[in-house]
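A further point concerns the way the authors explain their paired sequence and structure data. An entry of this sort, consisting of the sequence and the corresponding C-alpha cells, reads as follows:
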Amino acid sequence: MTITQEPRQIRDRMSAGDLAGLAQTLKDLPPVEIVDLLEDLPPREAAVAFRVLPKQTAVATFDQLRTTTQADLVAELGHGHVADIFAELDPDDQVGLLDELPARVAKELLRSLHGEDLQAAMVVLGYPQGSVGRRMSPEYVHARPAETAATVITRATDLASVSETIYTIPVISRDRDLLGVVSLRELLAAEGDREVAELMTPAVGARATEDVEEVARRCLDHGILAMPITDDENRLVGLLTIDDAARISQAAAVEDQARAGASEPLRRPYLLTSVRSITRSRIVWLLVLAVSATLTVNVLEMFEATLEQRVALALFIPLLTGIGGNTGSQAATTVTRALAMGDIRVRDVVRVASKEARAGLLLGGHLGLLGLLAASPFYGMQLGAVIAVTLLTVCPLAATVGGVMPLVAKACRVDPAVFSTPFISTFCDATGLLVYFTVATLVLGL
C-alpha cells in the first residue's frame, strides 16, 4: 500500500472479508500512516483494522491516536482487548484516555495496571484537570551533581525503554530538589569522568499546578525538549515533553477558534462527527446569542418614535452596528491572542484599555469623516454629522470593551475566547444603537 492509500480501499477489504489481506497490507505501513487511516474510518471499521495489527505495531499506533479515537476503540473492542496496550502507554497518555472514557470503563482499565505502572498513573491523576501536572510524565532519567557523565549515560541507556525522553536530563539533589538540567548531547561529548555539576545549566521549569496551556506555550517559546515540572517545594515530579506541549497548544488553538465563532470544538474529524453532535456544539451558543440579542430589539423599541420621524435613520443601522461589532471583535481577537502568547497579563488592563481607546478614537475619526462626506450630499449635513459623531463615539467604546473583556474573563478564570466575537458583537450592536439614536435626537431635535 502507498502513502496515498484511501480508507475506502481498507473498507473494501473489510467488506470482502479479506482480513488476512488487510492484516498484511497494514503490516507494511508505518504507525504514523496507520494512525491517519484509523482516524478517517468510522469507529467500528477502525476497530476491525486495529484488531488485525501486530502487537508492537498496535502499541505504537495506539499511542499516537487522538484520545477520542482511543476511546472509540475501547468502546468497540472492550477494555479487556486493549488492557495490555493501555499498560504500555506513558502515564500522562493513560490519564488522557481515562478522562475520555465513561467512569465504569475507566475504572476497569485502571484496575488492569499494577505495581509501578499504577503508581505512576496515580501520581498524574492526583493533579487537577487543566494543570500541567495532569499532562506531565512522571517517568524520567535523573542525574546528581556529583555523578560522572559516564554514570548518567549508563543510567539513561538502562532506562531508555521506560522513560518518555532521555534527551534532557534533570539534575536533582538527594531530596529531589531541582538544581538544573543537562542534555544527553553534553554528556556524550564530555569526558566520562567529568562531573554533572560542571556540565549542567539552569533549568526553565514550571509548577505542577500551573495552567497547562501557559506552560506548554512557555515550553514551545523556549524550544525546550523536556521541561522539568516541580511541586510547590521545588521537588521534581515529572517532565513535559515538547511533543506533548505542541499537542496541548494545538488543541487550545482549535478550541479558541471554535469558541470565537460561537461554537464548541468538534471532538472527532468533521466527516465522522454526527449531525446531532454538530448541532449540539452550536445550539447552546445560538440560544445564548438569541437571548442577548434582545438588547438590540429593546433599544430599537425605545426609539421607535424617533425612527418614525426620520425614516432615513434606519438605513444606516446595519452600517453602524456592523462597524461597532467588528471594531470590538478585532480588539478582542488581538488581546486574546496577546494573552495566549503571554505578551500581556491581567494586571495590564488599564494599559490595554488606554491603548484600545486611542486606537478606537483614531479609527472612529477616519470612519466618521468618511461617513460625513458620503452621507451629507444625499441626506443632508445634519444626518451626516449624526453618523460622524456616532462613529467617533462607538469605535473607541467598542474597542475598549473588546480589549478589556478577555482580561476580565481571564481574571474570572473563564476562557477569554468565550468573550470574543459572539458576546462583544452583541454588546456593541446594542450600545451602538443607543449612541446612534441619542446623538440623532440631540442633533436633529427629534
